[in-house]
Each structure stands twice: as structure tokens, then as C-alpha cells.
Structure prediction request, 378 residues.
Amino acid sequence: MRLEEFKSGEHKEQFQYKSFQPTGVNHVWIWEDSQVDKLLSEANRWLGELNAYSKILPDVDTYIRMHALKEANSSSRIEGTQTHMETAAKPKDQVAPEQRDDWEEVQNYLKAMDVALESLEKVPLSVRTLNETHKRLIAGVRGEQKTPGERRRSQNWIGGSGLSDATFIPPHHDDVADLLSDLEGFWHNDHLTVPHLIRIAISHYQFETIHPYLDGNGRIGRLLITLYLMDKQLLTKPCLYVSAFLEKNRSSYYDSLMTVRTQNNLIQWVCFFLNAIIDTARSAVETFRKIMDLKESLQQKCLTLGRKADKASELLHHLYLQPYVDVMDVNKLLGVTSATSNKLLQDFVSIGVLKEVTGYKRNRLYYFEDYMRLFLGE
Prediction:
């Protein structure tokens, strides 16, 4: 099938509405558009460079955790949550009550991501993997009544207040199982010589078009991108997450997906997707470079604390995982008294590692601002 000749599907008559029945994707894909080749080459180059950084940066898993939090926050914001990165990174007891529902959804995304990555260590990517991930994603939060971990058994829709004025009506629920089977077959069809970045571009479009769950389709579909790249070993570490790019270009993202369905323009979507990979990988490489520079600079600052340098280094390592900290946290982490913790925190403020954010004389909270800034505003 040529990308240029793709027919996305057809509308299927149901009772009082028409659902969209997408064309299967598990077959050979070729194209003539040279722009696809150019973008594919550049995307692979940046993925290779990102992989290289993920291998040489010590304790890389520590820093990837903040990339994952950014993905969880951005992907959730695309779906309407209002949490910002600074709030998403806070411990639960520091989050304002009116923000906790959104905070919980972001944390669930992180936990769902962990479930999926643990599964990939044992078995190849599958629809079952996505179901298990979906179950964790909406457990205990808004949407938990919408059959967590199970494909839908009723008709859903996108946009509008119902089927009568919906922007898009996905396939009928009776067709979802076969469509997912076709999609899973596409992921693992070794007889196809389709590059993996093209496969996952098509797969993300197809997954969002099938819309197999009653809730959480967007978040699972975006997480699918990283899971596929990990499963096919294009990434050795889960360090590429495209949701920040997609949130920044939300209108173009939705328009590109819809244009495939309405105008059969798969080329536009593939090019948009490859640009997302390029931009995201390039940004992640730059962030890793800045992390390496920041780590070296802050380690040197810790050495100026003399006899406290070892404890300071231990606290600094903790901050890369949890950028907010208070006296009680330091007490538990380092096994020291409150007086010692207070002094070390004041030292960190003095040398520019931490910033006090409450303005209180007691129950103060400190923020690892320079590190967090690397993950803001992209």
C-alpha cells in the first residue's frame, strides 16, 4: 500500500448514526514522497544520539524519571487536567486540595508507565499489555467507572455532546477486537520491511481511530509510542516522550489525525509524527547535556561544604528524584537530627542548590529550581 494512495476507511450505518470503520494496517507500506525519507533519516539520527546519551550518563534512570513525569503531566494536560510540572513534582501532602484530583491522574500515568515497562521486560508488546496499563491508568481516579483494563462494549464518540453532534464516531464496539488484532499483528509482522518509525506513526493513528476504551485512549495511545520504541529496541532506555510536543501543537496534532480520516492524507500525519520525534529527541539530548553540566557544577558546590560534603552529595542525588524537600525528608533520608537537616538545607540555599518556597519560619519547603527549570517551558 502506498501512503499516498491510502484509503482510511468508510462510514458504517448503525442505528441512527454512522460509525467510522478504519482500514486495516497490517500490510506492506511504501511511499514516493521524498520528504518522508528526509524526515525518517533525521529522526533516526536523533534517536541514535539520544540513545548514546542514555548510555553514557551515570545514573541515567534517575534523570529519566523527571522526563517520565513531564510526559505524564503533558499527556494528562492534553486531556484537560490543569496540573503544572511544579505541582506534579510535589509530594501529595504539599498539593492544594483543589489540585489533588489532577495530581492523582498524573501520578497514575507514572504508575501505569511502570506497569507497562515491567511487562516489556517479560513479554513482547501486546494489546494485553495496553489493557493492563489502562487498568492502572484510571484506577481510583475520574473515569474509573469506565471499565478499566477492558475494551469498550458500547459506542463512544469524540467531540460534541453525543452521537448526534459528535466530531468523530469511532468504529462500533463489535469491530474493536478484530481491529486491535490487526494492529497487534502489524507490530510483530516480521515479513514486512516497514521502518519502525513509520509503523508506530501509523499505529498511533490507528489506535486513536479505533479508540478501544471508554476513557484514557489518548494517554494510552501516546504511551504506546515509547513502549513500541522500547519493544523494538530503538530505545535502550525509556527516554523519549512526545506529549510535550503534542501539547504545544495540540491543534495541529488533532487536525492531522482527523485529516487522515476525512481526506485520506496519511502522508501529512506521518510527516507531523516524524517531526515530533525529531523535536522531542533533539530536546531530550539537549536536556541530558544540561543535566551533565548541572550535575558537575553542583557536585563542585557540595565539595565546598567540607566535612558535610558526603551528606550533601547524598541529599543532592535524592533531589534529582524528588525536587521538593523539607526537614523531615532530610531527617529520614540521611538519618540525622532536625538541627543538622536545617543547617544542611540552609547551606544548600546559600550555595544556590535549593530555593525556599514557602516564606515560613517553620515547616519550610525547599525546591530544586535549577534542575526543574530544565523540564519547564518546552
About this structure: Residues 305-373 form a domain with the Arc Repressor Mutant, subunit A fold (CATH 1.10.10.10). The chain has a mean pLDDT of 94. The chain has two domains: 34-287, 305-373. The chain has 15 helices and five strands.
